[in-house]
Amino acid sequence: MENIITINAEPRSEISKQARKQLRAHGKIPAVIYGISAESVPIAVSLADVKGVMKSENKENSILRIIQGEKSKFDAMIKEIQYDYLSDHIIHVDFIRIDLNKPVEVEVPVLLEGEPIGVKTEDGLLEFIHRQILVRSLPTSIPKQIRIDVSGLHINQSIKVENLPKSDAYQLLSPANTVICAVATKAKEEVPVVAEAAEVPAEGAVAAGGPAEGAAAATAAAGAAAKGAAAGKEGDKGAAAAPAKGAAPQKGTGTGKDKAK
Are residues 55 and 87 in the same domain? Predict the structure, then answer.
């Protein structure tokens, strides 16, 4: 990668909120250049230039030549872009100075190629876990992307950083056990099973025979109770007519012995 994008910059002395607002109103955005050994410098760059970098082939890993005035120019890369939290508008950019002869550490996007066997014939699901890999490389040798062929993956198999081929152009810095992608088993949909609750008869209700038979039984029980109550009344009358055993004779009742007297 030796394509260098030129960006014109101008010094920025005012760093107040109002000054930044005025810059954006004129199609520019505030920025800061951080140096490897030099001090940071506030500048202003064209918003159109920054958007052009992000649309380029290498995006934020592009090599930039920032020109400030007639004498000042240096190579840099985008360190960070800040967006408005309510929209996708770029509001600030941080640049970092680089030396084309010294390696830098950047994140490179991963591109998966092919359809895994585990997805095609084994009803698996491809999971893309890590979409970027950290590498160390000279600025001019940074890969645009790292391509990975996943067509040979079976279900429950994965590709880790340690499985990637080595390259003389860059060094892989992400941990070797970092899983980039995997073919997983699809989760089975669980069908809810509703258990039938056993009917518990209410207290005093007849368990068998259903509501109709229970009602009939209740009616019969009520009739029996009524008959029992009537019988009880007749018994009370009989008890009142006959004197109790051992009771004294009623007053005014004569006996044969009294007549003889």
Answer: yes
Are 65 and 120 found together in one domain? no
Q: CB neighbours of 154 closer than 8 A, spacing ≥ 6?
A: 116, 117, 118, 122, 124, 183
From 101, 117, 133, give the residue that closes a domain. 101
Q: Is 194 inside a domain boundary?
A: no
Positive or negative, the CA dihedral 199, 202, 204, 209 is: negative
Range of the domain at 146: 106-185
Residues in contact with 215: Cβ distance below 8 Å, sequence separation at least 6, in sequence order: none
Q: Please say whether the beta carbons of 75 and 111 come within 8 A.
A: no
Number of H helices and number of E strands within the chain? 5, 13
Quick: pLDDT tens for 82-104: 998 888 899 999 999 999 999 99
Burial profile 103-134: b = 16 or more Cβ within 10 angstroms, e = fewer: bbebebebebeeebbbbeeeebeeeeeeeebb
Quick: pLDDT tens for 195-213.
Answer: 655 555 555 444 444 444 5
Distance CA 55, CA 76 (A): 17
For tokens 């007749």, what's the residue? 234
Contact in structure between 153 and 117 (CB atoms under 8 Å): yes
